[in-house]
Amino acid sequence: MKCGRRSKEPGALYMKLRILSFMLYLYSNFDAMKKFTYALLMLFAVQLGFSQNKLWKGYFSFREIKDLSESTTKVVAGSENALFSKNLTSGQITTTTTVDGLSGETITAIYHSPTYKKTIIGYATGLMIVVNEVDGSVLNVVDIINKTLPPTIKRINHFMEYDGKVYISCDYGVSEYNLATLVFGDTFFIGDNAAQIAVKQTAVFQGRIYAATRYYGIRSADINNPNLNDFAQWTTVAGGAWLGVEAFGDYLMATNDAGSLQRWNGTTFGAHVQLQQVPVDLRKSGTNLIVTTANFVYIYDAALLQIRLLNSNEIPEIAATFTCATLINNTIYIGTLDDGLQSTTLTPGPFVDMTPDGPLRNNIFAMTSAGANLWSVFGDYDIFFNPYPLDYYGVSKYAPTGWFNIPYQDIEAAVGHEVTSMVRVAANPANPNDVYISSYHSGLLKFENDVPVLLYDPNNSSLEAPASGTLRINGSAYDNQGNLWVTNNYVNRFLKVKRADGQWQEGPDLGTLFQSISEMIFGRMTIDKNGTKWIATRDKGVIGFNENYGNLAKAITDEPGNLPSVQVSIAVADNRNQLWIGTRKGLRVLSSVDSFLSGGDLEAESIIIIEDNLAQELLYEQSVTDIVVDGSNNKWLATADSGVFYVSPNGQQTIYHFTKDNSPLPSNSVNDVEINGITGEVFIATDKGMVSFKGTATSAADNLNNVYVYPNPVRPGYAGTVKVSGLLDKANVKIADIEGNLVYETISEGGTIEWDTTAFGKYKVASGVYMIFVSAEDGGETKVKKVMIVR
């Protein structure tokens, strides 16, 4: 078919148009549908495409390597709270995160058993997770957590496999775990009189098990002794503080906290070499022994001759601190504290960063959507707004193509100045490549096209440094005229604005709202439809300011204002112009932001819900860290220690409450929430990593050209909802079975609706193909989709 001409024969596109016209006719006449059931069913069976959509995704940093393990076919790395492996043949990298079933807690040790095809992960809490590489199953083992021991001594330090058992070195002693039966065996408290002492590593050598303890020497016993749980069976073969012990061919090697690599001579340990630093890891790999310190990797051959000494200075691009290393097929793999997994050859050569894509750090303090991109910063401050110790972290940007990280060193070099403790991000709505980052110590940093180009400070802007302090810039927001407003702490004229034309100005003196300049400590800022700036403060509630009404300024506090706390985290207007206020001790709502423009004090109200037949306050005494309003006017409420809540427009219904126990959230401490209004992806940043949830939080579309349905098909066992996205606001959506029986109808708010796959909430619909008819509010546009449900 050529452009501008119609084919004489009905091609595929023409036929689809005819089919669509026919469907639209049926949409207006449900009875007619029943006459064509069989024909339509056959048509849909041919036309239906199958797709899947996971509701959760993980966006973790893999740059803090805690431990390495290996086999002949792969190297496995444990980062802060995630796992990744590289197939040495194909080069494929596989990641495992909380989305796959891991815990969000801190990993302290990993071990891969090639014989049993299992990877064991140990945590600081004593949790142990077993990942079966055959079927991908994840087993949580809580035996150590459940032991009646102080929680501070349950840390897992090392795994050692021998004769089908894994010996687990912990801060209380040693435990056995059977890899075949996945059952715990005995626990050995090997200190004097069965004292609980920290064991760093174990090894089996010439029929005896050796345990390197942190403060009580190296202790040994017959590995075949059935009474190893009797402390009297263990003897001390060397005193002092030891960090590792390893059986290596004909040698038993150990390291101590004096930085000495020592060798067992049958009766005692003697120095083999004095290392330049205290060792952090000792292991064998094939016919090599590897000792790692913070800046060096020592590699020895089978005769204990040093064949390579690797210095961190050999990696010029980074200032690496090493945590562990191993050698496989003449390739050295080095775990680092902040720079991921690096590899190089045994013969000195270039280094390769093998770290999976991800942000610079897991603890994302704040983030902002900019078009299709998500910017993240990692500087922070405590509840008293104290930024010390200062953070020297870079910036991460997530784009559809992946993560782009800008290291701190690059930022400092680009602007010629320290830019520490970066805490907020503001993106220009008119130009997503124009991004500003607030430093709670140095000023305001400008990025253009992902490049740091300028640091605004008192020398080139209206920003002020107080007489007794540093330049602390925090909340920043754009108004609808393209002006960028920022808060400047500890100065009377604390509001500054960078006009759309690039000129800087300062706001009026609002010092009368405060008793002293020391109270002028500001957090996030948002701007409502009237141009009113709503500024969260540390101790003075919420400050509202509007320069268009005679520099009108008001405060909402506990008295007047009815806030449960004057420590406010966020105040944001929803789609119905209500102001939602999150504080350190609960939630309040101002009925209308318009009331700010009229006379009188502002009074916020609590949200009363019915739970367990009792009236109670929504998020009573909860520390609310962020509030985000989606396209349907539902709210995401982030908390400091209870995860994240997703509630209805009025807050009366809790649609979801996600925690680390019922979802892939790695932590219940949520720092920030951000929504991609195009895709509906909700990013949830916690202090232990970021995940996203694919909800219905999409902005309304301009037309119905891109309506889509997911998941499709709905497979057996799926317990979630079917989502229809790409909708106009207030679109009419009808869902009917193949015989034309209506099973669901709703009006969209925003760009997405959900269907629970029931017939008007009464019962689950049967297997089959279901028609989804969409029409605009005025009937000017229509769209027909279909979904297959398989029970």
From TrEMBL:
Assigned keywords, A-Z: Signal
Domain of life, source organism: Bacteria
The protein's name in its UniProt record: PorZ N-terminal beta-propeller domain-containing protein
Domain PorZ N-terminal beta-propeller residues, every copy: 79-235
Keyword Transferase: no
Keyword Glycosyltransferase attributed: no
InterPro entries, per the entry: PorZ_N (IPR048954), Secre_tail (IPR026444), WD40/YVTN_repeat-like_dom_sf (IPR015943)
